[in-house]
From TrEMBL:
<dbReference type="Pfam" id="PF07729">
    <property type="entry name" value="FCD"/>
</dbReference>
<dbReference type="InterPro" id="IPR008920">
    <property type="entry name" value="TF_FadR/GntR_C"/>
</dbReference>
<keyword id="KW-0804">Transcription</keyword>
<dbReference type="Pfam" id="PF00392">
    <property type="entry name" value="GntR"/>
</dbReference>
<keyword id="KW-0238">DNA-binding</keyword>
<protein>
    <submittedName>
        <fullName>FCD domain-containing protein</fullName>
    </submittedName>
</protein>
<feature type="domain" description="HTH gntR-type">
    <location>
        <begin position="23"/>
        <end position="90"/>
    </location>
</feature>
<dbReference type="InterPro" id="IPR000524">
    <property type="entry name" value="Tscrpt_reg_HTH_GntR"/>
</dbReference>
<dbReference type="InterPro" id="IPR036390">
    <property type="entry name" value="WH_DNA-bd_sf"/>
</dbReference>
<dbReference type="InterPro" id="IPR011711">
    <property type="entry name" value="GntR_C"/>
</dbReference>
<keyword id="KW-0805">Transcription regulation</keyword>
<dbReference type="InterPro" id="IPR036388">
    <property type="entry name" value="WH-like_DNA-bd_sf"/>
</dbReference>
Length: 262
């Protein structure tokens, strides 16, 4: 099976987060590296070598070094003393902790958003919902750019929903945890468990509750939203258990040595 292509090769401008690599190569490289780790272009525990990444992303050494440091703050990259940086590993223990804290912090941010959000926030949420419903849900890597467009729409809607909390600190925490949870989906999930799920309909009723200002009903809907994703989480836990019971084998090589972003 061929390696996934880098997000740096995608043509839709929405997938570049509004960053111009010519004027801000560090932010561009950080965005590409973060998304490529989440998407599975780089494998768990893969060594991140500056020289290889400069060729992979076609940017300078300094932007790559700074990008690695930026992404390491998210928990997607770890530093080993005297060995440099690696992609963070995965484990059943980490996944269980991650999902628990992600759901708790999401509930907190959503409750604060309803308490603090104003009409401008509600309008942004409704607009984000409208835009997301125009994007086709894609649950296969056979269409990598379309898959990333769906992830972009999904993440943008949830970011707008939580933005009403008014806390950049909390938004950063939930965002980092969400990216780490998404990475587990991309690496370990049985996508068939989620393919028939009507995410657009689930989002619509959540946004309706937001506009109505019904916090209690909103929390019930959020619990139901998380519960609907449980079959996928079961498949992730099963994949992790199988990996942890499997003898380790030497990896064939890194993404950066096998392909180069356009």
């Amino acid at each position: 099976m061929a390696r996934l292509v880098s997000v740096a090769t995608f043509k839709d401008p929405r997938l570049q987060a509004g960053i111009d690599v010519r004027t801000n190569p560090t932010q561009a490289a950080a965005h590409w590296l973060r998304r490529d780790i989440v998407r599975g272009v780089f494998e768990p525990l893969e060594r991140l070598k500056v020289e290889q990444l400069t060729k992979f992303y076609n940017v300078g050494h300094s932007p790559v070094r700074e990008a690695i440091l930026l992404v390491s703050a998210s928990g997607l990259v770890v530093h080993e003393h005297q060995k440099g940086y690696r992609v963070a590993g995965i484990s059943s223990t980490d996944y269980a902790d991650l999902i628990d804290i992600y759901q708790r912090t999401y509930h907190l941010a959503l409750t604060m958003a309803v308490e603090r959000g104003d009409e401008d926030w509600e309008e942004r949420v409704v607009l984000a919902l409208h835009r997301s419903m125009k994007i086709r849900k894609v649950m296969t890597d056979a269409e990598p750019e379309d898959r990333e467009l769906w992830q972009y729409a999904y993440k943008n809607l949830h970011n707008e929903i939580l933005s009403g909390c008014g806390s950049p600190l909390l938004m950063g925490i939930v965002g980092d945890l969400g990216d780490r949870a998404e990475r587990y989906v991309n690496l370990c999930a049985d996508m068939a468990t989620d393919r028939e799920r009507d995410s657009h309909a689930e989002h619509r009723v959540i946004v309706d509750a937001i506009v109505a200002g019904d916090v209690d009903h909103l929390n019930v809907l959020l619990d139901r939203f998380f519960e609907t994703g449980e079959p996928m989480r079961v498949s992730i836990r099963a994949s992790l258990a199988a990996l942890e019971n499997k003898p380790r084998r030497r990896r064939a090589g890194s993404a950066a040595t096998q392909s180069t972003a356009a």
